[in-house]
Amino acid sequence: MRLAVAGGFDERLSECHETLADLEALAERLGLRGQVTFLKSLSEADRAARAMPMRGAYL
What is the pTM of this model? Predict the structure, then answer.
């Protein structure tokens, strides 16, 4: 099973950088870094392409 955390990242905001670093560290600490992908921002085309092969929950 894999988890993709995607979108909502604003390069200008330090909070986004801090949150991403915290989430990456948490995934590493839990031994899940290989199962979690962090995608800062997605275009509509990227979002549609990634959603097609996925099954599961969308938030």
Answer: 0.72
